[in-house]
Amino acid sequence: MSQKLIDLKNRMRSVENIKGTTETMSTVSAAKLARARYKAATLGIFAERMRQIALIQSELALFSEKDMFSEEVLNQVSPLLVKKVNKNRIVMFVIASDIGMCGNYNGRIGKTAQGFLDGIIRKNKKAEVGVWIKGIRGERFFKRNTPFPILKVEPWSDQGVSISDALSLIMTMTDLFLHRNIDEIYCAYTKFLSPVKRQPTVIKLLPFSFGIEEETKKGKTAITKWIYEPDSLTILKELIPMYFKIQIFDILLESYASEQGARMMAMEDASDRASEKLHEMGIQYNRMRRDLITLDLLGILSAARVIEKESASQTAF
Questions:
Q1: Please, are residues 98 and 136 in contact by the beta-carbon 8 Å criterion?
Q2: Considering Cα of 287, then 292, then 293, then 299, what sign does the dihedral take?
Q3: Closest by alpha carbon to 252, among 164, 183, 123?
Q4: Residue 172's domain spans which residues?
Q5: CATH number, residue 230
């Protein structure tokens, strides 16, 4: 067997190994996606319903016609609701991934966060922004492409999304907002729509809001008077931290599901390309074998003719 044929055979084995790896990763990502997708779907319905209830009732509990947004009442309910006078110190939480091989997942969320922060700086020259990243791969993007300081990089836990991750993020955000003079906190994450469709999204987390101002301006809230026990403000005090935890947990689930969906699609695409490459290399291998066999046959036939001529000449003598 010629050396070229041996080299091609070795390359085919390498591509087969790569295909096996990508197919395995695609299967694992599909299984992780199914679990995360189920959790995200159920939690998202619960969170949206809770937001709607809190939105309607908070208008009754917190606002009056004379003073739509009373800071004193807001602070009494939760200091996370109070808007700060200055909006110069801003932190962006970016949810990325720890490992690659998920297409442009990290690049898209990085560009979305970068564009949003650039817009803030253009509007407010005094703005100071920092980036807090969950996911090791996100750090690479911001180091290479942006001047924004990275406050911290936190990896994902081995089990994926856990409630401890959400609690850790909440503690960090509340500490920055209440004790470290941060005026606003945003989060850039990838909203999961389907395995093939994901949407990078930026939302404001602190100061906390149920979307009261926006809904009030649109006039879409239908206020329903409920009877409270003990009272509406006490219930809101309990409801706000609960909803904030659910919101952060939902963000992590959406991001994790998006990451697994992106990786599944990327690995399926890599497997398809590996199959195409193997097909092309198989054709090339068969042609080389055919040419080699043809050369061997020609050599055998030529040798047979030479032997036949030599035998005929000896017989003639």
A1: yes
A2: positive
A3: 164
A4: 37-269
A5: 3.40.1380.10
Residue 293 lies in a domain: no
Length, in residues, of the chain: 317
Higher-confidence residue of 241 and 74: namely: 241
Please report the pLDDT score of residue 75 as a whole number: 67
**Joined tokens for residue 198:** 């994901």
Would residue 191 count as lying in a domain? yes
Residue 204, strand partner residues: 186
Looking at the domain assignment, is residue 89 inside a domain? yes
Cross-strand bridge partners of residue 3 = none
Where does residue 70 fall: left (phi above 0), alpha (psi -120 to 50 degrees), or beta otherwise?
beta
For residue 155, is the peptide bond before it cis, meaning its omega torsion is within 30 degrees of 0? no
Q: Helix or strand or coil: residue 11?
A: helix
SS (H, E, C) the chain: CCHHHHHHHHHHHHHHHHHHHHHHHHHHHHHHHHHHHHHHHHHHHHHHHHHHHHHHHHHHHHCCCCCCCCHHHHHHHCHHHCCCCCCCEEEEEEECCCCCCCCCHHHHHHHHHHHHHHHHHHHCCCCEEEEEEECHHHHHHHHHHCCCCEEEEECCECCECCHHHHHHHHHHHHHHHHHCCCCEEEEEEEEEEECCEEEEEEEEEECCCCCHHHHHHHCCCCCCCCCCCCCHHHHHHHHHHHHHHHHHHHHHHHHHHHHHHHHHHHHHHHHHHHHHHHHHHHHHHHHHHHHHHHHHHHHHHHHHHHHHHHHHHHHHC
Q: Please name which of 118, 116, 123 lies closest in space to residue 94, comparing C-alpha atoms.
A: 116
Of the listed ranges 91-105, 199-213, 251-265, the least confidently predicted one is 199-213
- SS3 label, residue 182: coil
pLDDT for the residue numbered 94: 94
Q: How confident is the model at residue 56 (pLDDT cuts 50, 70, 90)?
A: low
- Could you give the number of structural domains in the chain? 1
Q: What's the mean per-residue pLDDT of the chain?
A: 81
For residue 3, give the 3-state DSSP assignment. helix
